[in-house]
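Methods — Computational structure assignment.
A single polypeptide chain was analysed. Its primary sequence is given first, followed by the predicted tertiary structure written as C-alpha cells.
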Amino acid sequence: SSSALVGALGQVATFALGLGLVLPLAAIAAPLARAERARAIAAPVVAGLAFAVYAGGDWMPGARHLAPYVPLVTALGVLGLERLAARGSITRPAMVTRVALAAALAGSAHLLVTATLARDTFPYPVLSSVEHLAAARDMRSLLPPHARVVAFRIGALGWAGDFEVIDLLGLADREIARIAARHPDYHPQRTRMGEDLPELRAYVASRDPDAVLLVTDADATFDPAIELYGQHFTFARSYPLGVDQAWALYRRDRGP
C-alpha cells in the first residue's frame, strides 16, 4: 500500500540521515566499480533494503531493521569515496572524508538527542520497559500465579510477571499470527482487543483468560467493568507508561 511504502522510505531516510547522508550517498558509487569486495559488501545491504521496503516501515524509531548494516554501509561509503577520488570527481578527498565522518557523528548525535528529549513519550517507554517491568511485578499481587493475560505488549509481562500471555499480535502465538495474516489491517487497538474478529474472539475465549491488559491514553477514564470474549472483566488497577499512555488491568469475574 502507499502508506507502507511511505513508511519504508521514511525508515531508509532515517537510516541515511543517521549516518550523515554523505557516506550512504558515496556507498552508491562503490558497487559500480569493478571490485568484487564492494559488490560482496553491497549484496547484504541490498537485501536489507529490500526487507525494509517489504516490512513497510516500523513503529520503532531509529530504523532498527537497517541498523545491522551500519558497518557495511560505512565501508561502502569509504570505498565509494576512494573510487570518486580516483576518477577525479573529488579533488580534495581528505577534506571530503572529514566532512563525511563529521556528518555521520552529527547524524548519530541527532538520533541520540531526539531519543533523550522524547524518552517519556511513546514509543520510548516501550523501548526502555522500565515502567512495564515495574507494572508486571505489581500485577503478581493482583493475579493468580501463571495467570493467562490477554495483551499485546508481552516481553516484560511474561518475564517479570511470569504470566501466560495470550499475545494479540501473534508474536508468541501461531494461531493468532495466522488469524492476523488473514486480516492485513488488524491491530488489537483497532478491533477492541480482537473482539471484532469472530475467529479471534472465539480463539481467545477458548484460552480461558484470567485478565485483559488494555493500552489507553494517560488521561483516559476507565470503565469499572467491560465485556470481552463473552466474559465479564472488572477494573483492577492502572499503570502509567510515560506521560501519554497507560496500562489498564481488568480481572476476570469468575463469580463466587
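Note: The chain has a mean pLDDT of 89.
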